[in-house]
Amino acid sequence: MKHRMFLSAYFALVFGIVLAACGDDTSSSGPEGGESSTIEESSSSDAAQSSSSAEVTSSSSLLTSSSLTLSSSDSRVTEAIGSSGANSSATFQADTIIIPFALKPFDGPLSNPHKGFTVPTEGLWTFVPEFEYGPYGSLNNKAWDLITYGSGYQKWNKLNPAKGVYDWTELEKLLNGLAEHNMGYALRVLPYSPSFVKGDDTPEEEYDWTPSFVYESGAKKVTATVQWNGFHATVPVWDDSVYLYYAKEFAKALAEKYDGDPRIEYIDIRTFGEWGEWHASHLDGSEMPSDSIEMDLLDYYASVFKKTQLVLPSSGMGDVYTHALKLGITKRDDGFIGIPGRPDSLVRAYEANLPTIAENIAGYTTMLNYTDVIPGGYLKWTPQRWVDAITTAHLTYYVLDQDSDCGYNFYKDNKALADSMSKVIGYNFTVAKAELVTVASAKDTTSTLNITVKNTGVAPCFFDIYMVAEFVDSTGKVLSQMGETVRIPKATFKDGSSQDFSFKAAGQANIATQPGVSVALSLYESEESFKKGQNPTVRFDNEGILENKKLLLKP
């Protein structure tokens, strides 16, 4: 009858003798700091049998020889094994080594692409030192540590100044400037903004950003009254056939220029209403189009945009919202925290496997002064409401603040909370378990990295992601790739779920046992960028992130 006895308590002593048998210096070979290792021994029940075998598993050292024989005449072996019933010698099988890696969460804010927070970035002036709230401004605004993409609006009449004429010059400058700062851009093209109606005599072009040629071609407009100041202003007739024709022509040109452009995070369809938000609630005398016209416009956008994520603005609701989801068009909401139930309204988009997007109803400092009187007022901003809004709606994208201070006051008051939520919003990949199994034989050596990764965010990753494992030296230089690149299709790694992955390197020299060799994990947005030798752009939420964003695994 065979039995197994675990001699963990004596591993340091016995393992030092094993290394001595290999001709290694044993002075610094034993495990330190409480690391656990196991010697597994099998022996027969016959006390006279002269040998037994044991499998060695080490978390701190690597063995390559297939077996080692130790004499029990060595007093240290006798002391270590004495009570186990072994006699004159023990043979230790050392052809399989398992190295578990120590894993800790990353300490600090963690920004990653295609998720997270934004602030208004209306122009390249955001990045000049003279802008005190910018990333290089005098206030040292650390809110930018959380910002992953820019956002803002463009005027339709500036991008489309004449019939069949499109001017992308300023937009291109902004996109390129953001790309230089590793940020994409959330694009909104507005036809109208009542915010700029300052009197009855305000020039139309200051608030009506519908190109003049649209009216010259026969599109109608009406006069409406701005509710909050009583001023009169002209407004497009939103369901006018000429207006709709040129709105679609612009959508077509925009798609031809930017569909699939990696610099664009998403595009809001802002064709109708005040600020393009698909409502005319502050303009007495202006009416929104019918649901059928709104759905027809969504159909057209979906027909010309095949790659870039499209977004239905706040007031697209009911059947229009349902239709948008069927087309793969997601939803944003601009009434967060201030209006009850708004986070719940985005759950439909999350359940349709689409990213959700939100913006507070007003700037942070403004919302702090709300009185929580509903109806007739808005809910004030509180930390708990902010957390609840993100988690309830499973947000992927969120405007950190919309005031001109670019989140400065918000981050100054809520740094620790905001840092922690940078790991909650959208996807967040954490390596929960990792071990390297090396098996040596007379023919070759096979090393297999087994890892468990958990998405600890509140949403899936909405882009294809490529995971790579590599052997690296002590400087982080790549020695060889382990196995094949693993592709994780977009939206398949659900929030809260864990997945197991294995990377196997076979038929190579035993790289894993060479001094200073370790393993690095990387996440890429495309396999092509990995093949070109570029650094990864996505970071794991673990300690050990190198300057090049690779995760160095350590025993």
Walk me through this protein's architecture.
This protein has 14 helices and 25 strands. Helix 6 packs parallel to helix 7. It has 555 residues and is of the alpha/beta class. Residues 1-94 have low confidence and may be disordered. The strands form five sheets. An eight-stranded parallel β-barrel has the order 7-8-9-12-14-15-16-17. Strands 1-2-3-5-4 form a five-stranded mixed β-sheet, with helices on one face. Strands 20, 21, 22, 24 and 25 form a five-stranded antiparallel β-sheet that branches. The protein starts with a strand and ends with a strand.
What is the quaternary state of this protein? single chain
Share of helix, binned: 10-25%
Tell me which CATH architecture of the domain at 429-553 applies here.
Sandwich
CATH topology of the domain at 429-553: Immunoglobulin-like
- Percent in strands: 25-35%
Name the descriptors.
single chain, 555 residues, Immunoglobulin-like, eight-stranded parallel beta barrel, 14 helices
Which secondary structure elements does this structure contain, and how are they paired or packed?
Layout: E1 3-6, H1 11-21, E2 38-43, E3 53-57, E4 67-71, H2 75-81, E5 89-93, E6 96-100, E7 116-120, E8 147-155, H3 156-159, H4 169-180, E9 184-190, H5 212-216, E10 221-226, E11 232-236, H6 241-258, E12 264-268, E13 283-284, H7 291-304, E14 310-312, H8 318-326, E15 330-336, H9 342-345, H10 347-351, E16 356-360, H11 364-367, H12 383-392, E17 395-399, H13 408-421, E18 429-440, E19 445-455, E20 465-472, E21 478-481, E22 486-488, E23 498-508, E24 518-524, H14 527-531, E25 551-553
Parallel strand pairs: 3-5, 7-8, 7-17, 8-9, 9-12, 12-14, 14-15, 15-16, 16-17
Antiparallel strand pairs: 1-2, 2-3, 4-5, 6-18, 10-11, 10-13, 18-19, 19-23, 20-21, 20-22, 20-24, 24-25
Helix pairs in contact: 6-7, 7-8
